[in-house]
Amino acid sequence: MDKIVVLDFGSQYSHLICRRIRESNVYCELVPYNVPLDKITELNPKGIIFSGGPASVYSKNSPKPDNKIFEAGIPILGICYGHQIIIDHFNGKIKRVDKREYGNALLEISDKTNLFSNIQSNTLKCWMSHSDAAEVIPEGFKILAKTTSSFSAAIGNNEKKVYGLQFHPEVAHTENGNTVLNNFAKVISKANPEWNMTNFVESIVKEIQEKTKNEKVLCAVSGGIDSTACAVLINKAIKNNLTCIFVDNGLLRENEKETVQEMFTQKLRIPLTVIDARERFLKKLDKISDPEIKRKRIGEEFARVFTEFAEKEGPFHWLAQGTLYPDVIESGVSGGPATVIKTHHNVGGLPEWLNLKVLEPLRFLYKDEVRNVSRILGIPEEVLTRHPFPGPGLAVRIIGEVTPEKIDIVRKASKIVEDVLIEDKLYSKVWQAFAIVGDDRAVGILGDERLEGRIVTIRIMESVDAMTADWVRLPHETMEKMSSRITNEIDNVAWVTYAISSKPPSTIEPQ
Ligand code: XMP
After folding, report:
1. 80 catalytic residue (yes or no)
2. In 3-state terms, what secondary structure has residue 98?
3. Which atom number of ligand 1 is nearest to the Cα of residue 509?
4. Which atom of ligand 1 lies closest to the CA of 431?
5. Which residues line ligand 1 (CB under 6 A)?
6. CA 85 to centroid of chain Cα atoms
7. Pocket test for ligand 1, best of 386, 414, 508 (most atoms within 8 A of CB)
8. Which of 295, 330, 352, 353 has the most CB atoms around it within 10 Å of its CB?
9. How many Cβ atoms sit within 10 Å of the Cβ of residue 145?
10. Domain 3-188: which topology?
């Protein structure tokens, strides 16, 4: 399949470039900036994009690509820092600007061939974010567009098929940015648009069959979109050689077990083994208040339940996981966040001693692509639109010790929060919505009696990727409905509060 390769110089937008190219149905992969030319030749890309990045080309150890790439005859597009690498490589000049250019700028296009073909307007709003800029552009390059602060906001050498953009075409703030990337992929690099989810399903099913031969695969599902899509794809490929299990750890949302069971057996027609491990998990969490210990214990217990099942019902040869592309690809420069804020537990982290080979059918996909695949596979729409739910479940929504009483409160209150949002047509507009309970108490009146009951906190967040999030300014009527239903319908709750902290500095889950 024709593809474009993005060299990652550490920009926060590297994955976005990749996604945008894929949106134009051309397959695109992200690789570290320093992959040698022979590795790139193996990938056989139709075009190469240099991402942006935080470095300066003139500083000592700044990241640079393999020099031979420029002579390989493969079209190149540099974006921001990538643009400056091109200028530097071909002996132009880069300098530090007095004032960092950041935000919207108006691009005036002077050449509407190649990179800017299929664009009607002569001006475009574009997004700039740089502290270095070109002083002299290299010989053989032509200016294609400028802004008031950048005389060479876009440059190109049609003979060499090398182009550079000082602005970011991949971000939504740039008008027609998709067309510019599309032009690089299809017009300049002549990549055929062969990437779509129907083809993907066909080819991955074949690949699963070839890989697993006649061996047995074990897949733990959570009812979430990733593990469900993973199970459905494998089931399509190998039918009865796949065993799916669902562990009820007693920390699930209301009716979750029943819903997942029904979806698998009735709608998807995939056999599902449900393991009732509620007591075991509760015992492991007894008297534990520390959030990290809670997460650790839940992860370990999950591994134990899983291992026991594998040993009893096996032998299995493969472990299926719903890992997605962003988890597979490490950034070229930074290896991800340096400090662990929370240890995230997913059905993924399973014991090595089981000696299972790993099968990851979604490892090439972004989340939105998984959604499209899921639609093709007939996974119910409710699964695609359901809010994310953390692996350790309700335990991270309970502050202090996890007790049956607190689990019951937080489960019922979360269900009310969700129900009211659905009723008020707000559910799909928010990222996550749930209830939290801790050990604080407040005084209330129940009938004529004084009650010192628990405080339930409602947390409703909007976000794009959970990296940052803002609390939702919920209509007061909606809040009121939630509050009165929670105090009326749940025993022992006296007060309801609303969490008004964004991320950062807070996190989405309280634990
Ligand atoms: P935080 O609380 O870190 O949450 O701001 C960010 C997003 O991740 C979810 N989350 C988890 N997901 N295992 C998961 O699979 C976990 O241990 C976990 N902890 C938090 C959280 O619900 C939010 O969407």
Report:
1. yes
2. strand
3. 2
4. 24
5. 295, 342, 344-346, 388, 390-392, 396, 432, 466, 503, 507-509
6. 29
7. 508
8. 295
9. 27
10. Rossmann fold (3.40.50)
Strands 27-32 and 76-79: unpaired
* Fold of the domain spanning 404-498: GMP Synthetase; Chain A, domain 3 (3.30.300)
- Atom from ligand 1 closest to the CA of residue 503: 5
What is the token pair recorded at 253?
């949302």
Whether residue 230 lies in the annotated active site = no
Tell me if domain 3-188 and domain 404-498 are identical in fold.
no
**CA 34, chain centre distance (Å):** 24
403-427 residues labelled b (16+ CB within 10 A) or e (exposed): beebbebbbbbbbbbbebbeeeebb
Total count of residues recorded for the chain: 511
Active site residue 301: no
pLDDT of the chain, 511 residues: tens digit per residue: 999 999 999 998 999 999 999 999 999 999 999 999 999 999 999 999 999 999 999 988 899 999 999 999 999 999 999 999 999 999 999 998 888 889 999 999 999 999 999 999 999 999 999 889 899 999 999 999 999 989 999 999 999 999 999 999 999 999 999 999 999 999 999 999 999 999 999 999 999 999 999 999 999 999 999 999 999 999 999 999 999 999 999 999 999 999 999 999 999 999 999 999 999 999 999 999 999 999 999 999 999 999 999 999 989 999 999 989 888 775 444 333 334 455 555 444 566 777 889 999 999 999 999 999 999 999 999 999 999 999 999 999 999 999 999 999 999 999 999 999 999 999 999 999 999 999 999 999 977 889 899 999 999 999 988 888 999 999 999 999 999 999 999 999 999 999 999 999 999 999 9
Specify the CATH number for 197-384; select among 3.30.70.2730, 3.40.50.12780, 3.40.50.620, 3.30.1490.20. 3.40.50.620
For 308-330, give the secondary structure using H, E and C.
Answer: HHHHHHCCCCEEECCCCHHHHCC
Q: Which of 28, 101, 170, 345 is catalytic?
A: 170
Count other Cβ atoms within 10 Å, centred on residue 48: 25
Q: Which residues contact 487 (CB under 8 A, 6 or more apart)?
A: 444, 493, 494, 495, 496
As a whole number of angstroms, the distance between CA 186 and CA 47 comes to 9
CA distance 311 to 316: 8
What gap in Å lies between CA 126 and CA 139, rounded to an integer?
Answer: 26
Instruction: Quote the ligand 1 centre to 460 CA distance (angstroms).
Output: 14
